[in-house]
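Why do we bother with a discrete structure alphabet at all? Because it lets us treat a fold like text: something you can write down, compare, and reason about line by line. To make this less abstract, here is a complete entry for RNA polymerase sigma factor. Read it the way you would read a sentence in a foreign language you are learning: slowly, and without expecting to understand everything at once.
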Amino acid sequence: MDLAPKQSQSENLSALKSTVEQRLKNFMQDVTGRALVMMENATQGQQGIAMDLVQEAFISLHKSYSEKSTEEWYPLFYTILNNKLQDWRRKEARRSQPFSLFKKVSLDEDDLEIQDVIDETTPSPLEFLDQAVTIEEIQAAIRQLPVRQQQAFMLRAWEGFDTQTTAQIMNCSEGSVKTHYHRAIQGLRSALSHLNPYSGGSSE
């Protein structure tokens, strides 16, 4: 007599698992392209490493947060991805500096906060540049920025996260996010000014 309830419970679990798998598939289709661009920029074009980091982040997300809603997945995924990137960067820093194993490795070469930075809002990466500048040219310029500036810009401009959420993802203060983002925009305007004669570079 217990057979029917057990079958029903099994069917419910199977249906729930199927729903989670489908949600994850849809989520991956939405964010994979942008996440790969972010990681390729941060690893100086190492596509294999970028793919590994993104895949590992998806696996961790599914393993630890499958019960969360899709909306909650976005900041969680990028937080996991950021942590994996920082781990990779530390390993690379120690590999290039063998004796750094015995001291703290600093990865944030531009982490000093600028006081009174206005929290600039850029809904579209092209909005603050002339439309003649292409996404490819912007991405090439982004790759030349320090990694933390890249992250701040990509998370704010590409993903549309607010300053508070970006700070949580990057594990830093909101002031640091504002500083990184401000410097990223200045750097991009300067790097792309020769392609965009109407902008005249940054006036800040």
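What the structure line is telling us, in plain words: The CA atoms of residues 58 and 64 lie 10 Å apart. The chain has two domains: 3-102, 108-204.
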